[in-house]
Amino acid sequence: MTSHSGATPEASESTRNAMLERCLSVLRDAKHDSEQFAALLLVTKAVRAGDVDSRTRRRIFDAVGFTFPNRLLASRESPTGCPEHMFRALGLTLLACFCTDPELASHSQILNKIPTFNNILASPSDPDDMSTSSMIDDVYQCLGAVMGTPRGPKELVSQGTVSALCQAYVNRSYGCDRALELLMGLLATAETKCWQRATPDLRAVLSRLSEEFHQAEDMTKFQLCDVLPHFVSPSLLLTRDQQLSECLCNLYRGLVSILSSKLSQSQRDPALKLAACLTQACGSEWIPTERAGSKFLALLVNLACVEVRLSLEELDPADVDGKQEVVTGCYTLIELGILECMKEEKPRLKEAQKMQLVRIMEEAFGAVIYYLRQVGKQKLKDPFIFASVRILSAWLAEETSSLKQEICDLLPFLIHYAKALFQEGDKARSASQHAAELSGPGSPQGSEWPRDALRFLLPGLCHLTAEDRPREILISEGAPALLCQYFLHQWELLASNPQISAPPNSIDISLQTTCGVFLNLVVTAPDLVRQDRCFSSLMDALLKSLPALLPQRDRLVLAANVTTLGLMIARILNVSPALHGIPPAKDFFEAAICFLSQAHVAQVDPASQCLAMAVSPAYEAAWADLSELWFLGMQAFASCVPLFPWLPQMVLRSHWLDDLLRLLGQATPVSVDFELLTALQGVLLELARASQQCREVIILQQGKELANLYGLAALEQCLCER
User: Fold this and answer.
1) Contact at 8 Å (CB) between 476 and 527?
2) DSSP secondary structure of 585-622
3) Which residues contact 421 (CB under 8 A, 6 or more apart)?
4) Strand partners, 615
5) Whole-number Å distance between alpha carbons of 381 and 449
């Protein structure tokens, strides 16, 4: 005989179903609250005994709806001899049961219970009280179900659940691990809103986690490496206080403890990702400035470089896919290394450390180049390729003397990649514009494209176009035409919304750097300017853009770039009909004269109490960034004077010539440096040669005497000739 110590699962299921059927029958037919309560007690007992299938759950809901659970939750008293929160517990159990149906979980009657759920989590609880623990379990089940609905995260954040979950975790209340899990889910879907609503509470959780991270000596330390990044906000440093300082210190100590030890890959990777997350949020601020901190920073960059080499050089390209997240984190750490190696003021690293890191980073970038050449063209839309191009661009922006041949070999791919993404964005913009036209006026129009590779490549291209071999490759790959299209699009963005953000923003910087690339091409390859049609299109855009740009004083550096580039191209394309007599050309040159003429003033020197030549107040703040462009612009303008017969008359009408001679007459000669004198003489000399009227004005304004006083021999000779 076989003994049976308990019922079989099939028997238990059958018994539970039979009990539910009886209860549902009572609920349908009950005429008094007492009968319903009795039936509900049996229903909740059945619900707790095991999972309820969707059909049965729906039958329970049809029998009681939301009205009865609402009454239970509102009840403040329990029958004599029953647990204090019996009715509320019954109501929560029913709601938890209903919430397993996604349709019911998103119902307004569930969403309006969120404050009730929050209050239960935030209230003090006794972990030994089974009824309270059961209520909290049901609350977490409800909140988890709500979070899984489309509207759920927004509702939870707006109704204060983030703060309630934070309090539950910080106070180590019953179920705090589930609170942490829900917090991570909410931060993953609505990070910005969470931090806006509950910054102090989230900071308290981060503080608690960082303390646990520092103190842990077991596997918890490695597990927290996966948890902590959810709580490291990009705006973390906006409010620096003692709590945050202690928090960052604990995170630093915890990572030192991990990364200074011998680790397996599964232990090292989460630590590197956490370090990268902190670096994205805080730069190097989370690493102390003393010697130990500098040593750790060097170790961190070193480990990142090794990881990049191991992943990109030694793994099969197909296996790299599984390492993309950690390698992308390593890119962030390597970018930190680049910044620290280039830092001259208050450097954290000694020169020997910098030299060593540059060599190690060079090897890592060799691996990035190798990887891009292997798989780049097959994975143009892969975000990891974009991340790899972005970090390589950061290196090229600072260092082009190493890996020259490898970079030259990769340039065709980089241009192809940037062009493919630009064209992809162009299609997206066209589709967006078409949709906006169909939607009618007032519809938002997309102006950005998903991944702007050119924005990151531009600084490196600025260096590379100054070198013969890379420049030849870039020209042969069609880079000038692509850059022209890019410039036109960026200008369109800026012109359509001048208040897009306070300059210098990414659009301003992209336009400035694109001008820098074109200046290199104009200086080193003038024949290209004459032959490639894109430069005519660029010239047309520059003619139209400068007059609109110049009044925007906060964009003076961009105006300097546009002025100088326009003048440099104009002297090469001087036979173009677009540059002779038509309004855009005249408007451009008037704006160029305005920009060049307002850079200097005569003002009292405090030391000598004499008038001295000085940079005008309007230009002073930006002079370090635009002075070189101004001098180049003066030189280009002087070259344009003999090429455009109407230009001297424009100078006379603008009174620049009078102002320039008056300025030289007012200033003390010793206050005018040689470079400035050379620039001024260049313009005066060409005007005197090209126009008899200008020559006479110069002579009438004591031009011969000024030329003699300042040692402007070429100008003096020209004025003395008959």
Assistant:
1) no
2) HHHHHHHHHHHHHTSEEEEE-TTT-SEEEEE-HHHHTT
3) 380, 386, 449, 450, 451, 452, 453, 454
4) 600
5) 13
Quote the pLDDT of residue 429: 60
Whose CA is closest to 667, among 598, 615, 617?
615
Read off the tokens for 212: 């646990």
What count of residues does the chain have? Answer: 722
pLDDT band at 565 (very low <50, low <70, confident <90, very high): very high
> What's the average model confidence in pLDDT over 443-459?
68
In 3D space, the residue among 469, 443, 338, 311 whose CA is nearest the CA of residue 395 turns out to be 338
Which amino acid is it at 87? F
Q: What's the mean pLDDT when you consider all of the chain?
A: 87
Angle made by CA atoms 328, 269, 187, in degrees to the nearest 5? 70
pTM confidence score: 0.85
Which three-class secondary structure string do you get for 455-503? HHHHHHHHHHCCCHHHHHHHHHCCHHHHHHHHHHHHHHHHHHCCCCCCC
Average pLDDT over residues 444-451: 46
Whole-number Å distance between alpha carbons of 5 and 305: 63
Q: What share of the chain is helix, strand, coil (3-state, %, to 5)?
A: 75, 0, 20
Burial of residue 389 (number of CB atoms within 10 Å: 0-12, 13-18, 19+): buried
Angle at 326 (CA atoms; ends 322, 327), nearest 5 degrees: 90
DSSP category for residue 82: S
**Residue owning tokens 């003002």:** 603
Q: State how far the Cα of 251 lies from the Cα of 210, in Å rounded to an integer.
A: 6
Beta pairing partners, 633: none
Output the six-digit token pair for 200: 């102090």
Give the tokens for residue 91.
Answer: 């109501």
The answer to which of 98-112, 227-241, 363-377 has the lowest mean pLDDT is 227-241
CA distance 318 to 375: 9
pLDDT for residue 610: 86
- Which uninterrupted H or E stretch holds 565? helix 556-572
